[in-house]
Amino acid sequence: MALFKLFFALLLLCTGTYGAKFTFVNKCEYTVWPGILTGSGTPPLETTGFELPQQSSRSLQAPNGWSGRFWGRTGCKFNGTGPGSCSTADCGSGQVECNGAGAAPPATLAEFTLGSGSQGSQDFYDVSLVDGYNLPMIVEASGGSSGMCAATGCVTDLNKYCPDELKVSNGDACKSACEAFGKPEYCCSGAHNTPETCKPSAYAAIFKMACPRAYSYAYDDLTSTFTCTGADYTITFCTSIPTSHTAVVNATPSTTNGNEQQAAMSSAPSPGTSGSGSGPEPEPMMRTSGSSDSRRNHSLSTLQFLFIASAFIFFF
Known about the structure:
Keywords: Disulfide bond, Signal
Organism: Heracleum sosnowskyi
Number of strands: 10
Oligomer: single chain
Shape: globular
Protein name: Thaumatin-like protein 1
InterPro entries: Osmotin/thaumatin-like_sf, Thaumatin, Thaumatin_CS
Region (Disordered): 251-295
């Protein structure tokens, strides 16, 4: 592994292909084991998973054009006497390294597609709850320009507000409605695999109300995908509340800058999905629709979404 790290660093230095630096910070009251899945066609980072003790950090360098996703595993047991596992977001490798495997949902995901390094080439990034939620995570850009370069993520502990039917049995994670029910109207598949036919459910509204900048369902693009050029990124687990950036992350992004935002969406990959190994090129987790009665019950208006989400969080 040491030789691989040295080779990786020399390769980047010789080719001049340094892209973004990713710094992982653990502010949880427990150890987190970040997992990393690299998209096909881009070189892997120096590790695919590592231990990150409480109040510690670690940085990794990525090349230009890199794409992939990060997540935090919790409740892991790796004692060296046999295959290990994690209670949430396990990648199933049995090791600290994920070795090309993705996160088993529910998992909070941070997804990136870095620019090629050419003039004006943008990075695209998001935090997705499409595969459910297991712990708070925020992404912050630094040193970048030419783009929104905004903080995004979810600082709210959604496990406290998770509906009973979405809770993982021990309460350490919250499933997506698609994973919990498997119904087309929740999964944006089949007849519901377009932005026009896939609408957010009342469950997605709860996620969106708590975390306005994170993906709550597959086509939640306009308020959930962000761009920046030439930035480094900090991925923080369990950010302390209150913080200077909590209000920013909890604020709903403006969608009035329509031309720039739509242009960004047209050239960005669609983020959102599939923790357990379908590849990290952010492809939306497609879901479908059932009967018109089912759609009437679950595809409510935006106003109804907000009302239901507000009422649920208030009474919980």
